[in-house]
Design brief:
The structure is a single chain. By secondary structure, this protein is mainly alpha-helical. It has one domain (about 1-415): Glycosyltransferase (Alpha/alpha barrel). Helix content is about 50%, strand content about 5%. It contains 18 helices and nine strands. The chain has helices at about 1-10, 30-40, 45-55, 80-85, 100-110, 115-140, 155, 165-170, 185, 195-210, 220, 230-250, 250-270, 295-300, 310-320, 350-365, 365-385, 405-415, and strands at about 30, 70, 225, 275, 280, 285, 290, 390, 395-400. It has a three-stranded antiparallel β-sheet with strand order 3-6-7. It has a two-stranded antiparallel ribbon with strand order 1-2. A hairpin with a 4-residue loop joins strand 4 and strand 5 (about 280). Helix 2 (about 30-40) packs across helix 18, helix 6 crosses helix 12 (about 230-250) and helix 16 runs antiparallel to helix 17 (about 365-385). The protein is globular, with a radius of gyration of 20 Å. The protein starts with a helix and ends in a 5-residue tail after the last helix. The mean pLDDT is about 95. The structure holds alpha-D-glucopyranose. Alpha-D-glucopyranose binds next to helix 2.
């Protein structure tokens, strides 16, 4: 299985970055690269560092690291650089994605066989990653609450989650103009977001473009401001890990600032806890209301150093989900009416999220659940191959095939965990 996974990685390798999969996603995606580097690191550390180095080379002056870097033109993807209009020499989108690169760099450093190489790269990368984290708290948390908002569903990485439905209804569709989607010619339309959702995705892009992608304005101008526990957990975990590594590398200023951001974030996460569900929920910042949607974002929150009793409760919550599906962890509760086992982030299992959940549970000592989740990952791949995502009940492979981060997670999981029998 590892041989096969390595083949997927090398087929999608474009030299200094990988594409998530040929056709459907022909550029470099932010959190895909960070997580894929973990897979490369098991057999080619130099190539793994390069993956993240390329990503960070396209950081904006204000600190943001963009969600897509359009290294080479490709007509097969919409919306391309001309829709974003960010005016960069190498075009990028104007939004960001979950900042898991901080976690990935620290993990790669800890495991490195070539310590000198790791030291060189980590020293160069930590200031950049730290600047990105500071950008988040400055531009996406202007009231200094300790939690950042995402302004576009694509920023969360969970593009069409049920979590956004109510808030997304308030994003207009008028004046968007006509466009041709390209995703539905590469993947089954029943596995993808709807046309109505696509109009709203594009409306937001046009709105932010009209503000010249000025991040001092975007937050307050956006009708979509969601505080996602999963996203915040990734940011908090990355700040936490950066703080630890910066202290080891004798970078005390970064260490102190990163530690303060992580601590404030952990405390603020409490506002998102739901006793009713036994997990965290999103907060709609425009209404000030919690979003009553039991999705995986509030389970992924265990990736952050949250209090032990919260982590244990999340493990119990996952055990309940195990009663209603065959493969953990579904991206939405299968008993909820909106659940759709085939449609992207409205039900399917994603290995990258499973990996982060398993890691968080491992830190909390929930090893039985870790064993269950990691062995479900392997069973899914054995049954259905390296798909983008899988139906949590039937294991049907969905979305794109031959998928980079799915393969990277298989390599990472098989090298990290004792699988449950
Ligand atoms: C989809 C996913 C997103 C991912 C991208 C590339 O848009 O929702 O999380 O980064 O594909 O794989």
């Amino acid at each position: 299985m590892i041989q096969h996974a390595r083949q997927v990685l090398s087929d999608n390798d474009r030299g200094t970055y990988t594409v998530p999969t040929h056709g459907l996603y022909p550029f470099q995606w932010n959190w895909d690269s960070a997580l894929s580097a973990l897979g490369f690191a098991h057999f080619n550390e130099d190539r793994a560092w390069t993956e993240i180095e390329t990503l960070l080379a396209h950081q904006w002056d204000d600190g943001m690291v963009p969600h897509i870097i359009f290294h080479q033109p490709d007509d097969g993807y919409f919306p391309g650089p001309e829709v974003w209009g960010t005016g960069r020499d190498v075009p990028t989108t104007g939004i960001t994605q979950p900042p898991v690169a901080g976690f990935a760099v620290c993990r790669m450093y800890d495991r490195a066989r070539d310590k000198a190489l790791a030291d060189k790269h980590a020293r160069a990368m930590l200031p950049k990653i730290h600047a990105w984290h500071q950008w988040f708290y400055r531009c996406r948390d202007p009231q200094a609450t300790g939690l950042v908002a995402v302004l576009h569903p694509w920023e969360t990485g969970r593009d069409n989650s049920v979590d956004w439905d109510a808030a997304f209804e308030r994003v207009p569709t008028d004046g968007v103009g006509t466009f041709t989607r390209r995703d539905t010619s590469h993947a089954n339309p029943a596995h993808r977001p709807t046309d109505e959702q696509y109009k709203r995705y594009i409306w937001l892009v046009q709105k932010f473009r009209s503000l010249s992608w000025d991040n001092t304005k975007l937050h307050d101008a956006s009708p979509f401001q969601i505080v996602d526990p999963g996203f915040n957990a990734i940011l908090i975990r990355s700040c936490h890990d950066v703080a630890t590594l910066a202290a080891r590398l004798d970078m005390p200023e970064i260490a102190a600032e990163a530690r303060a951001m992580a601590d404030k974030g952990v405390a603020a996460m409490e506002q998102l806890w739901s006793e009713k569900w036994g997990q965290y929920l999103c907060l709609d910042r425009t209404t000030g209301m919690q979003v009553d949607s039991p999705s995986i974002g509030g389970i992924l929150a265990v990736f952050a150093p949250i209090p032990k009793e919260r982590a244990v409760a999340i493990s119990q919550r996952i055990a309940k989900l195990a009663e209603v599906c065959e493969y953990l962890v579904p991206s939405h509760d299968p008993t909820a009416p909106e659940f759709d086992g085939l449609r992207y982030w409205r039900g399917p299992v994603w290995l990258i999220v499973n990996y982060m959940i398993a890691d968080g549970l491992e830190q909390a000592g929930e090893t039985r659940m870790v064993g269950r989740i990691t062995s479900d990952c392997v069973r899914l791949i054995e049954t259905s191959g390296f798909a983008e995502y899988h139906d949590p009940i039937t294991a049907e492979p969905c979305g794109g095939a031959h998928f980079t981060w799915t393969a990277a997670m298989v390599i990472e999981i098989l090298n990290t965990y004792e699988l449950a029998a």
